[in-house]
Specification:
InterPro entries: BBLN_eukaryota. With 94 residues, the protein is an all-alpha fold. The protein has one helix at 29-88. It is built from one helix and no strands.
């Protein structure tokens, strides 16, 4: 059963020790299973974040390319207008 923050609830073993395994390392099967479960959840969250990051990166590259294209078009139009005004010469006042 999970706690309020998604942490697995593991009851203390005999005599207040966690796990109560015979090896004396302080971790029993339940603790390892809980740790594995938490690591799986972390891994899943990181995978999800990586997917979102990749999508965002692709969107930003697309936006950057679009902005470059728009800027080039604007520069070309600006150059055409300035070249056209130069070839026509000064306009007499009306």
């Amino acid at each position: 059963m999970s706690g309020p923050n998604g942490e697995p609830h593991v009851a203390p073993g005999p005599a207040g020790r966690d796990g109560g395994d015979e090896d004396g390392d302080g971790f029993g099967e339940e603790e390892y299973a809980a740790i594995n479960s938490m690591l799986d959840q972390i891994s899943s969250c990181l995978d999800h974040l990586e997917e979102k990051n990749d999508h965002l990166h692709a969107c930003l590259k697309e936006l950057l390319e679009s902005n470059r294209q728009t800027r080039l078009e604007f520069q070309q139009q600006s150059e055409q207008h300035s070249t056209g005004a130069d070839t026509q010469g000064p306009q007499p006042p009306v």
